[in-house]
Structure formats: C-alpha cells, structure tokens
C-alpha cells in the first residue's frame, strides 16, 4: 500500500513522518491509529492493520515514528532520554494529528489508538495527557514499568543484532536501520531507564482501555496490564495463551474479535 510523508515540527526542527491511510473513504466510521513497537514501522505491521480495519469496518492510520521506517532518521549522535516515549506522546503525536486534522472538532474526527509494546506505552501516555482527545485505546504488551525480563530480552536482542542477520532483515523496513535499532536499544539498556514508570499517570485515564498480554511474552509479565487495571479500573484485560510479545502475529483471530467488539461497544453512534 502507498505511504506518504507528513512534515511536522519536533524538537525545535522539522521532521517527516511516514503515514499510511486505510479505508479513508469510510469517513463516518471509527478511526484507528496504529502505533508500532520499539523496532517497528508501517511495513513491520504487515497486513494486520488492514485486516482489523476490514473486520470492524474501521478507518485506519498507520505511522512510522521519528527514527523508524521512512520517517526522518535519528542522527547518530542523538541519544534518547528516559522521557523519549513521553515526548512522542506529548509532542510528536499531537503535532502529527494537528497536521492531519485529527482530534476534537477536526475534520477526521477523534482517534482510537492501537499501540504495541512501546507504542502501547505511548498510547497510554497520550490518553492520560489528553483525556478529551481520544475515544479509547487498545494496548498490546505495553510497558508501564521496566521489568528484569524486559532488560534481559533486550540484551539478548542486542547480541542477535550484532551476530546474526537480524540487521539485514530489519534494514528492509527502515531507511536507517542503525538509527532505529540503537536509538531503542541504547536507552532501554541505560541504567537510567530503570526510572521509567507510567503508574503515577494511569489514574488520569478516562477513556475505555483494552489491555492485551500474551502468557508467553518474553519482554514483560502480566504485571504490566494488571497494573493498568489497578490504576484505571475501566480497563478490560485480555490474556492470551500460546502468545508471545506480538499478539497480532501469534493470536490475530482472538485479538481482532476482541478489539472489534470493544471498539464497537464503546463508540456511541454505533450502538
């Protein structure tokens, strides 16, 4: 499918963000915005966004964050801080939505966020920071805190990147694969990143939340989504057996069924 580049301001300069629209002609239907994982991009979602939007008769917007896919690469000397996901949620995503006419009273309407891993954390941050600007969120394997299992698996991914063909495989999906990989890997393995903790912000969530975790997730435990429910009791939990860190790849059928039902049930004009 065709993607395009959108110019937005970020960090005192202009950057370009790669976006792809799905079923834009369905103007009256819910708009689902897909936020990818720490090494993801538009192309790494593969056909899942299109399949979900087809199943629910939704519109879709898929994007590659700054540093990923065909978006502006991160300069090699630029080191991300503990707040890199906060900045994506509070600066880059609002700027993109403003450029595209998404939000309260805007031409393309209110978004539903659908985030995976780091993208799930960004969805939580956006919804907590702008509670009136989102209809609801679905988060897959989100991080609300740093667990030992996450750090151990990310260390292993570093070795895989250095010693196997993982770099070549990822290079098919990113204009600057080293920008994408090291921006993510370096900050996650920085001891300072242990301070990352979204729990104090979660009570600010006002929208419906569907939180999904695989029982075999190698990057996080059920404590992540159970923590969301503890601080935001409106959260619905979906725990998937025979599922690792990527529910949309490991259990696409049950995930799609649950997400379509959830979005439809919480969209007032569809009832």
From TrEMBL:
Keywords: Hydrolase. Residues 30-173 form the AB hydrolase-1 domain. GO terms for molecular function: hydrolase activity. InterPro entries: AB_hydrolase_1, AB_hydrolase_fold. The keyword Ligase does not apply. It comes from the Bacteria. This is Alpha/beta hydrolase. It comes from Cupriavidus basilensis. The lineage of its organism: Bacteria, Pseudomonadati, Pseudomonadota, Betaproteobacteria, Burkholderiales.
